[in-house]
Design a protein that fits this description.
mainly alpha, 2 helices
Length: 64
């Protein structure tokens, strides 16, 4: 049984999105650990896009 409210889901998805964006290889650009050839996988980017779309749908549903 799923007891997660739309607001709780929105908070959870926004947190997951922030974690995914923070773990992008580009995030370490300009640091000593940055390697120019290291890049996020297509699956990583797809998950970010999916989360952004779902967050927008949830926000629209909560507003209207």
């Amino acid at each position: 049984m799923d007891t997660e409210t739309p607001q709780d889901r929105l908070v959870r998805l926004e947190r997951e999105l922030a974690d995914l964006k923070a773990s992008l290889p580009e995030h370490c650009s300009g640091t000593d650990g940055y390697v120019g050839v290291h890049a996020a996988s297509p699956a990583h980017w797809q998950r970010i896009e999916d989360l952004e779309e779902e967050i927008e749908r949830l926000k629209s549903g909560l507003e209207g």
